[in-house]
Amino acid sequence: MRRVSDSEYEGREGLRRFRVDLADWLAEHGSDLVPLGEGNGLAEDAARTMRNQRVLWEAGWLRYGWPALVGGSGGSPMLRAAVAEEAAGRGLLYETMFAVAEVLLPATIAAAPDLAAEYGRAFLDGSGRWCQGFSEPDAGSDLASLRCRAVDHGDHWVVTGQKIWTSYAQFASRILLLARTGRPESRHRGITAMLVDMDWPGVTVRPLAGMNGEDEFAEIFFDEVHVPKDRMIGELNGGWGLAMDILRSERGAIFWMLSASLADELDHLLAAAPLDAADDEAIGHAFVSAVGLRARSWTTQHRMEAGTITTPETSVDKILMATAEQELYDLARSALGGLVELGEGPAARRWRAGYMYSRAASIYGGTAEIQRNILADQVLGLRGLG
Amino acid sequence: MSGTGAQAEPGGLDPGVVAELRRTFAAALAHDDPDRSREELLGAGWLEALDADERASVALVFSAQGRIRHDAAALDDVVVSHVARRWPEAAPGAVAGEVAVAYPVSVGPEHHHVVFRAHRGARRLLWLGSGFGAGGVASGVASGVAGADRAAGSEPAAEVVDLEAELDGRAIGGVDPDLGLIGLQVRPPGRSWRLDGPGAGPVREEALAAGRVALSHQLVAGAQATLDLALSHARSRRQFGTPIGSFQAVRHRLADTLVALSMADAATVAAATTRSPVAAAAAKALAGRAAAVAGRNCLQVLGGIGFTLEHEFHRYFRRGLVLDRLLGDQKSIERELGGRLRTGDVGAERLVNLDDCPPAVLQPA
């Protein structure tokens, strides 16, 4: 593992050096990492991302931007974004580049350092994934109406209820769960966050087959699951604030990486599709959208670092992300001339999966309509009219 | 929207000075007599600020021009400063003093040049070739055939003309007569220096990029002003017993406008920071897109009153239409970039990186 001081990669120059050192390392050791297989299924992909996680953690790269509490070597969270970008650009995926780690770990570190120290490190070093248990069948955009119940039994809760849309739940060791600890009508005031082990009695996972051909999302059923109170994250009935912090951080490093992936995907399309001058305007439009997304994500990263961005403002990023991704795959579908709809073989399957998955971009993580409501209410100041 | 806690660029203006300039420039441009805008702006130290910190001062002046709608021909200064910096061998003093700029535009099938009225007294004229946006051909890779022919022919990238007489063009009415453009059909007579040969391309690219960044700031500020008008209306206008801003269909139009202009704003700051010609082209396209989105959505929210000359909306709308045309409009730029991507002239490169620092000084006042 690389042994370096915390201050080695500080500031703008440090970040630049970091990217160069990382690229050098990847050039030399990239073959220790495994790319995603072509259609080997979700379980195989999940195993590969975990393997890469362990290699990059051992090499020290995934320690940057995380505090010592979880085994990290400190520094700006932008270092994490830089690793994600460089790896994604080479088609290499690892576990904590995804939203789950980026959103759940910082929130847990802030609200429950003891839990973060004990279990967060296991997530980072590749020995145990976490997943996120927020949405329920009747609490999607209206998260404050969630009903999964945690009944107080002194030193533990008994949790009963259902979660849905949890990504990779079938591969996770732990779940950060939002449960109702207040009265049924307590809305956002009666929600508590807790860390639950997926192998505890009473937890059942049922994967949902998605139209992209993968069962990435899952339902989780909790049937009288005993959760010790020392697994509480943050304050009793303080889960709502935690959830809001989580939603904001989702749009930092993750979006930076996604914006880079989008540019790469456009490059792949340009190489793969038989294009002619009639396509120029659509190519240019998709490219310009990708450039705008990246620029916005860049300012957001810096404003998060400086603490000058509010959560509602990041709804702009979410809308841009979904729009740019769908524009790109609309272009792909049209330019690839039937490959998405009728093609066989690995390339066709890959483009088809990407196209189908892009349809969900304006739904997951808060629908495009909810994001517009948030902007209207909280950024444009239209809340409470009438 | 674009502000961060980052420090000013090394060698850039001190943030305190920038805050002061923001007020001074806005006051200069808001002068009662629009014809005095240029004089006032020069008096406020615009050229010195441009020299000291282009990224900050261009953002300040062009945002103010976009908001206030008085135009002081500051675009000429931006373009000329880049040509002068990169073209010292032109002729001693060729690009010095008050130099007006003639921008190529298409008017239907014809090609014209336009000059800002605020600079009509200038005795030198920088006559820009068609590579400066009209046909959208900045790279030599053809997208518009006519543009490619002109670019490939003997036309220089630009010329500086020592004018024999005061500029004599007709005022352009068009959709926005208030902007004060003068139209020129042919290059005015006078001794000239030609910017051509192998070194001309990079000079043109740099000057074009700087001009596009400036115009993008102006377009974004105009879109923001348009959104502000619609927001104010949405809060005060009542129908069915409630402000129309409570209706989701109205709110989503306003939110979409914010999204479009936030993206254009970030892209403009990124282009100003990286000085990449491709980033500047994308920023100009996004700014044109933002102006169009603001125009469409905000007029819809304003309804009938927005259509009348009694409301200010039309002034911003008109200005946006014309500014979109200068130095390449949204559609031509997208077409051009698409062609360059398709032919491999540019890659889908990452135009800004995490270690590029957005300026603290661009925070809203």
Fold blueprint:
The complex is a heterodimer of chains A (386) and B (365).
Chain A: H1 11-29, H2 42-59, H3 78-89, H4 99-111, H5 113-124, E1 130-133, E2 149-152, E3 156-167, E4 174-180, E5 191-197, E6 203-208, E7 217-228, E8 232-233, H6 239-249, H7 253-272, H8 280-306, H9 315-335, H10 339-342, H11 345-358, H12 368-379
Parallel strand pairs in A: 1-4
Antiparallel strand pairs in A: 2-3, 3-7, 4-5, 5-8, 6-7
Helix pairs in contact in A: 1-3, 3-7, 4-5, 4-6, 7-8, 7-9, 8-9, 9-11, 9-12
Chain B: H1 15-29, H2 37-43, H3 46-52, H4 54-68, H5 74-86, E1 99-107, E2 110-116, E3 124-128, H6 145-152, E4 158-163, E5 170-171, E6 181-184, E7 190-195, H7 200-236, E8 238-239, E9 242-243, H8 248-274, H9 277-302, H10 304-307, H11 313-325, H12 330-342
Parallel strand pairs in B: 1-3
Antiparallel strand pairs in B: 1-2, 2-6, 3-4, 4-7, 5-6, 8-9
Helix pairs in contact in B: 1-2, 1-4, 3-4, 4-7, 5-7, 7-8, 7-9, 7-11, 8-9, 9-11, 9-12
Helix content of chain A: 40-55%
The average pLDDT of chain B is 87
Supply Rg of chain B: 20 Å
How many individual β-strands of chain B?
9
Number of strand segments of chain A: 8
Number of helices of chain B: 12
Measured as a percent range, the helix fraction of chain B is 40-55%
* Major sheet attributes of chain A: 4 strands, mixed
In whole angstroms, the N-to-C terminal distance of chain A is 61 Å
- Give the amount of beta strand of chain B, in percent: 5-15%
| Spatial strand order of the main sheet of chain B | 5-6-2-1-3-4-7
- Helix and strand run of chain B: HHHHHEEEHEEEEHEEHHHHH
Offer a concise description of the structure.
The complex is a heterodimer of chains A (386) and B (365). By secondary structure, chain A is of the alpha+beta class. Chain A contains twelve helices and eight strands.
